[in-house]
Amino acid sequence: MEREQLKHLLTKLRDELEQTESLDAGLQNLAADLDNQLNRLAHEEDHQPQHDLGDQVDSAAANFAANHPRAEAILRELADILGKMGI
């Protein structure tokens, strides 16, 4: 169940970021790294994520908060799911 939610939220986040015009290089790199990690977690049953992935998502949400509140909200949902998964 959580993996399906994770996949859904990743799609939502990708769509939101594609519509964002003012994403600086640092946030682009951060988003790409998280996308890669979360995508592997969502699609690879035996993938072991980095131990601090939940913290990384929380930190990313804080970085997106000021200028990209919709992306921040999605990242907060992702962090919640990761917490429920024990990550």
Explain how this protein is built:
With 87 residues, the protein is an all-alpha fold. 76% of the residues lie in helices and 0% in strands. Helix 1 runs antiparallel to helix 2. The longest helix is centred in the middle third of the chain and has 19 residues. The protein is globular, with a radius of gyration of 12 Å. It starts with a helix and ends with a helix.
- So how many helices? 4
Which structural class do you get from the secondary structure elements? mainly alpha
Helix content: over 70%
Instruction: Give the integer mean of the pLDDT values.
Output: 90
The ordered H/E elements are: HHHH
Shape: globular
| N-end to C-end Cα span | 15 Å
Q: What's the gyration radius in Å?
A: 12 Å
Low-confidence stretches: none
Which oligomeric form is depicted? single chain
Measured by DSSP, the beta-strand proportion falls in: under 5%
Q: What is the number of E strands?
A: 0
Report the sheet with the most strands, covering strand number, pairing sense and barrel closure.
none
